[in-house]
User: Fold this.
Amino acid sequence: MNYLKQFIKTSGVFFIGNTLTKLIGIFLLPLYTSKINPESFGYYDLTISLINLVIPILFFQVWDGIFRFTFDYEKVADKYAVISNGIMIQIFGALLYSITFFVVTSSLNYSIEYKYLIFIQGVLFAFQYYYNFVARSFSKNTLLVATGLLNSIISILINVILIVIYSMGIESLYISYIVGTLIQIIILEVKVKVLSNFKVSTISISLIKKLMLFSLPLCLTTISYWLLSGLIRLVISNRLGMYENGLYGVTNRLSSIMVLVVNSFQLAWYEMSYSMGKEENKKSYYGKSLNYILKVILYIGSISLIIIKLIFPYMIAEQYHEALTIIPITFIGVLINSYASFASTLFLAEKESSKLLMPTLISAVVNVFCLFLLTNTFGLVGATISLTVAFFINGLIITIKLKKLYNIRLKASVLYGGVATLIISTFVFYYFKGVYLIPFILILTVILIYVFKDILITVVKLLKFNR
Assistant:
């Protein structure tokens, strides 16, 4: 099997369905920033950050386990046995989440705005993840892309209607997610038939233990990762205010453009790495893929940073323009984190998820220390610098472990060339604006074509072959 072609084709499918769809949501930022004030946007951003922490922990991140273990079986019945055992963990997680949510929110001395909407979003967040991974377990990527596209379109339409016509605030963001995701889950159930194929006879305590042993280290990693990436929102909200957290939230969404691109490759990489099984030369594919994704991150990230500077005044309302200062710092942190996230999948492919805990924990400790120190001294800029430094440490440790354990190395030409390009782009971001940015974008476009010429040729050949 030609894994490179498989990787490129699957990446293309996920890019069309996942990245382009999410980009539409990013283009709604002009609406959000003009109709929703930074304080409210900061509150919404904080609640989503807490959901991202709590849900994977209370649901034991079982979706990662079922996705990995289904690739150990070829028979459909055996795959559904894994999925059925995962459902039992999922149900227990839902019960645990419900109890935890209402006990905690009832014990607080202040009322939680949109409490029930937040609760429902948390439940659907967990089941959306589960059904998405089930679909991917059967390589139903087109189905996943189509339902994701439908979800996004529905969410966007509801957002526009509720904000523009009914003048609603951040509650529209919760409602649109709930409706869109619920419809997606229903369609996925109809197609992949998780409940229809659920059999009590296939429930195995032994298999549940294996799923838990694989997933639990990921839960610990999630806690560490939240201390690494999610804690910043809590610190900004408490020490600087919801206004500043709103600025950071908008900056983070603009920076997430790069995450969406990398995520497309990462989703494709999951499948390819798991399907390699026991192939002798799979480590060679690991190294090639890692260097390829690093090249994508650094070079496409460089041009994306300048494009963000160019479109920022037209996309973002004036009340958020203070966020412009922290965009390069946040963006560089996102790029480093995207690389680390992709690199970490190599450990999952080898069923060594526990190896991810140490780098995440060390970088999380660094972030906690620097976050309080730098935020007090430099405010919002200090908070973003702290996070970027922590991301760098995480990526560095993961890179060292890959070299030590699997002899996977980064090519000097890819690393140094990409970093130099990113440094120049950062300089351009701070010292140029308006039409003066366009020549730099054109130059970087030419560089991109040259750097990715081999991949572009392969893509063209694939398109011709599939006609």
User: Anything to note?
Assistant: The chain is about 80% helix and 0% strand. The longest helix spans residues 242-275.
